[in-house]
Amino acid sequence: MKRMTFLFAAALTALSLCGAEPVISAHVLREADGTTKVPEGEVTLKTTRSKGINGEDVFTCRAISRTDKTKMVQIRKSVSLTGKDLLVFNGKTIAAPKAGSSSNMLIFQEYFPMGAVWDKTTNTGIAIAPGAGDLSSFVELTVAKKDDTVTLTIAVKAAFLRKGATYDCSFDVIRFDAKYGILDAIGRYHMLHPRRFKRDPRTNPDVFGICAQYCSWRWLNPENCRMSGATWEWCHGAGRSWGDPLNRELPAGKDYVTARTLEYRDREGKQYKYRNTDLSLEKFQEIQQFRAANGYYCGVANGFYMMALAYLSPAIARRYPDSVNAAFPMRPKGEYAEATGVHTFPECSWGQEIRRQFAELVKTYDLGSLAFDVSAPSSVYRGPKLREMNNVGFDQHGPGVVRGVGSALLFDYIRTLPCKTLPGNTGVAVNTKYQHCIDMLWCDMMMIECTPWDAEPPFPVPFRYVLGEKGLMMWEGYSPRDFDPNFNKWDEADQHQFKRDLARYAVHRAFASGSSLPAEFLTEYVCRTVHTFIECNDAGWKAVPCATGPAKTEIARYGEGDHAYVSINNSGETARVEVTVFPGELRTNLAGAKKGDPILFAPRFGGKAEQTLADGRETVRVEIPRLLLSVLEAVGSVKGKGTASVNWSGDFAWNTLTIVSKDLEGEFLPRQNFGTYVREGSTPVAIRKGETVKVQYRNAAFRGDLKDVREFPSVKGKQPEFVIRHADDFPSSEIAQRVEFFYREVFNGSVSSKDKKKRKRIRVKLVKDTALPPLTVAVTASGGNTADLGTGITVRPGMMAVRGTDRNDLSKTARRFLDMINAERFPDYGPAVKMEPYEKAYFRFDRL
Hints:
Elements: E1 9-15, E2 23-27, E3 36-37, E4 43-51, E5 57-65, E6 71-82, E7 86-89, E8 94-95, E9 100-105, E10 115-119, E11 124-130, E12 138-146, E13 149-160, E14 166-177, H1 183-192, H2 194-197, H3 223-227, E15 232-233, E16 256-265, E17 271-280, H4 281-298, E18 301-302, E19 305-306, H5 314-317, H6 349-365, E20 369-373, E21 380-381, E22 393-395, E23 398-402, H7 404-414, E24 427-432, H8 437-440, E25 445-448, H9 461-467, E26 471-474, H10 480-483, H11 492-513, H12 524-539, E27 547-548, E28 553-560, E29 563-570, E30 575-581, H13 583-588, E31 599-603, E32 609-613, E33 618-624, E34 629-650, E35 654-661, E36 665-670, E37 673-674, E38 677-679, E39 685-687, E40 692-699, E41 702-703, H14 706-711, H15 713-716, E42 721-726, H16 730-749, H17 753-756, E43 763-768, E44 776-780, E45 792-796, E46 799-803, H18 807-825, H19 837-842
Parallel strand pairs: 1-6, 15-18, 19-20, 20-24, 24-25, 25-26, 41-45, 42-43
Antiparallel strand pairs: 1-2, 3-4, 4-5, 5-14, 6-13, 7-8, 7-10, 9-12, 10-11, 11-14, 12-13, 16-17, 21-23, 22-23, 27-30, 28-29, 29-34, 30-33, 31-34, 32-33, 32-34, 34-35, 34-36, 35-40, 36-39, 37-38, 38-40, 42-44, 44-46, 45-46
Helix pairs in contact: 11-12, 16-18
């Protein structure tokens, strides 16, 4: 096999110590027409240079084979920086550079696809990365240091197996401000490639929310989902043949399904188990259908779990021989070159079949997301189809295409499949454990199998870098026994304290990295914070934090401008924390940005934030109890300077933003709304020295008087028999069962053993009421009137009702409805979890 190497070498030197402008010089072989050639003219390379969204240099290359000879070609790009106090980011770690040269393969070794070097004295830096569309190849980063100069080289490895084969690639050269280390470079890279690092606007927005349970059918209590703020739930096709998402593939000669372990519960809570049991195909389909419905029952969007991208069973693989190697190993043997995965290229027969099955699956179950367990982190396709493909790469084992190519094509196809009743198109979730960065680039939601003690902080920040602003979840939860096998022998008080401390730690890790938590972390602290995290997650995690603070805190940032959040983790004792916020960075997502009107912040969990607005920066002071978290919420822009304190107060119906000016004078433009809370009155609002300004927000989703909620018999603590009515449609019936469960399990479960002897349990009757408008559920005691119900939540004496505009809206509004009742009935949020006194005092404000 003939091997050649072509070097597209461009040297960029930044003399940061003397302030000289960077100079770029390209050293290539050029023909008269401007094209670039390797010796012998077997491969031509044409390059163009353009500017990115913030002035980055983007070098785009196209290589074309002129012969049928097999060729391996490297396309390289280099940058350099000179300085006395340099740091280097190699895609995973940050360290001072060492003399000599070292290389590592990106992607396969779970590195972020970027190299960067910067001067700690001046904070000037330069980074180089392959274009986000090139990450299906074999990408290598080399770091070389000679004297005071560090040179970074990105090499993309292209294989040409036929005449006319092409390889398209690009290199991004990014100059950045190293004020926050590597984050500004990563943030700029994210902005260069929004299709890879930002949310796909076509997909169901709930895919980016919070998933409560991995195995919904194993849990009786859907309140776990509501109390943890879950917006959707995962359903599992257990015990099936791999690569058979429609559940129609049966072992040869059999008319039943062999299930390894299969469990689920019906809506009355009765548990069914099938272990190593043969089920009829009809029974298995019935269970699968129930699971899909149960996902909606407990959440908003359905999920469906399958292993279609991992391996095909041998029986299925025989029918699609062009999708796998001739020798079909069922497990990788350690080296990624030996692993053989399924590659769903459209050209392959399996690629065509899997697309057909997914389209049918989404239509049948109305799925809002498809979740994939991609278990082979580095599988490489080396079959005969390579000769028909472009952008084929190579490594020491020869030509190949990494599985990420198939993932990208398949995932992009899935995003074109519309849901019937859920909003948007179907999204894509991927489940893994510290692996396949390459798949994460193409998915909408990443689910990481982990426990909090799996890795040191800042885990899982590297995953967040690769995902950008898309969804990230630590879904495995935790088992204290994994931490200590003797955990069950601990003193009971120590067990409870460990779980509370662990919940706080997990919340801190979540806010620091933008990673949501599963319902296994169901403590009072998690319940209180997770609703805020949903809002932060919806605003979008950002690489550039825009704020600095003391050593005992950890700062993260979500959203931008007047719709931003700054989270501050306090890992020490109770302290009055002072952070510096840079509004220019908050508005542009770029470190060092100067322009931008000041922004007022209010603590999301209650208390006051005192802030001083000056030129180009703001100082915000807030008290945070030990080991807790504060989230500063942007509430509007100010044209002016000075000091003021800002805080929230209110209830489910109304909330008030209060600004007490010390010497702040200016014009305040408050936000129009916060979720369903809409601003009352005109804007802008004048702020004068020494005065207090109040801005009122009304909950537009609530009609009625909270007094009637508090006087409703069940909320007040009485135990009558009452009726839950629902309209004659399936979503109303589903939500009515959720409400019934809430009253039966949560309220009755809250009665102490002593009181149970004296008091009757709540008796709930579920009734279909054809007089109700569609998508309506009403809870009525004696005398409750259900006439003329509007959308949202309506409360009258003896009646509370929730009505949606569609299935999705009904589910979300019902969640707020139950939260309202729960907050009135249980000030500590719920009977199943308890809060420490100092935590309890901290959460003085709830905006449901």
